[in-house]
Amino acid sequence: MSLGDDFCIVCGGKPPLYVDRLCETCLRVRHTISKIDDRIQYFRCSRSGTIQTDQGWIELKDQELHELLVQKNLELNEIANDVVIDINAQKIDDRNTRVFIHVNGKIMDLPFKDDLVTILRCSNGVSPAASRQAGNYFEATVQLRSIGRKLEDSELNLLRQSLNDMIENLPNDPMHFITKEGPVQGGYDVVFGSKGLARSWARELTKKWGGKTKESNKTVGRKDGNDVTRLTIAYRKPAFDVGDVLLWRSEHYRVFSWLPNGATLLKVAQNHKVGTSWRDLETAQVMSKKEDQVTVTPLNVDSQVIEFLDERDWKTKMVQLPWDWNNDRENVELAYIIDEWISLPRLTSQGDIQSH
């Protein structure tokens, strides 16, 4: 070797040389592609089962947890590239899991491989949401009421079930909990840990069943220089539903659909719709509930009336055809109002007139 030739600064070996003028042998002695601590500590909420992460307390499956902890704690050589990581977990007990980590990659186009082992150790913790729930923390109350009458148990069950259905379709949020709930004089109250969840449910209620809401806020203290408030939303359900028949301004109307501040009514006698406010409807009288109406198959049809079998007394009755009748139809919806049957224009589930 001449004095002008390159050489390894550790062993004096000949080229090829790599990082820091090291030969391949010395490079492999001084450099690894990865490293990780022998033990990694993490915290699981003893109440909710959520895991503490940099993004807060979240739900994670075991595989997701292992990958997250390895990703956070595995240190890769900054000059490595084409790195591939494979993880295999072996549960030791409820608090400890052994994880085998296989790392393949390249440094200066030389293949490197590491086989690492670490222990993931779980410690108990309590998430802020679980702590609040255990302490009966709440931010909002939704009060279920009706306009001018008492809510029936079947109605309350239907309204309450809509909350469960809505929560199932929302992204997981530890603050989406119910502190308490139950019947009160005049209705039913649900107390929430989240104002956002309470407002979302109130919007869902008015969308499905109409009615109106009224919000009020009460200041209960201060935190970090800001007022701490609690929200109360009073939801008042109408005394009628879509499909019911009302007597309003001396005419029969069918409730067609909900408006933000009232309802659209469809006249039973003719093809005429009218938008009304809740104030307008204060004098409306429910003449036939949707669940009390019947659907019949006509025995005979002429230009103006149909004959049908009344199953209440098993006699043949006649009723005038609805204004939306056509010969393609097979059934007619009827409502029994003040000792006589009347035929009804049809509605879809969305409150639209069915196409003929």
Please give a structural write-up.
By secondary structure, the protein is an alpha+beta fold. The protein has four domains: 1-30, no CATH class; 33-128, Sandwich (Immunoglobulin-like); 136-212; 245-344, no CATH class. 16% of the residues lie in helices and 44% in strands. β3 (51-53) and β4 form a beta hairpin. The radius of gyration is 35 Å and the shape is elongated.
Spans of 5+ residues with little confidence (pLDDT < 50)? 349-356
Structural class: alpha+beta
Please compute the radius of gyration using only Cα atoms. 35 Å
Give the overall form. Answer: elongated
Number of domains: 4
Output the helix-strand order.
Answer: HEEEEHEEEEHEHEEHEEEEEEEEEEEEE
User: In total, how many beta strands?
Assistant: 24
Distance between the termini: 99 Å
Average of pLDDT: 87
> What's the main sheet like?
5 strands, mixed
Q: Largest sheet, order of strands side by side? A: 10-11-9-13-12
Instruction: Give the % helix.
Output: 10-25%
Helix segment count? Answer: 5
List the helices and strands and how they pair.
Blueprint: H1 24-30, E1 34-35, E2 39-45, E3 51-53, E4 56-58, H2 62-73, E5 75-76, E6 80-91, E7 96-107, E8 110-125, H3 128-134, E9 140-146, H4 153-168, E10 178-184, E11 187-192, H5 195-209, E12 212-223, E13 226-237, E14 245-248, E15 251-259, E16 262-267, E17 273-277, E18 285-288, E19 294-296, E20 300-301, E21 305-310, E22 315-320, E23 332-337, E24 340-344
Parallel strand pairs: 2-8, 9-13
Antiparallel strand pairs: 1-5, 3-4, 6-7, 7-8, 9-11, 10-11, 12-13, 14-15, 14-18, 15-16, 16-17, 19-23, 20-21, 21-22, 23-24
Helix pairs in contact: 4-5
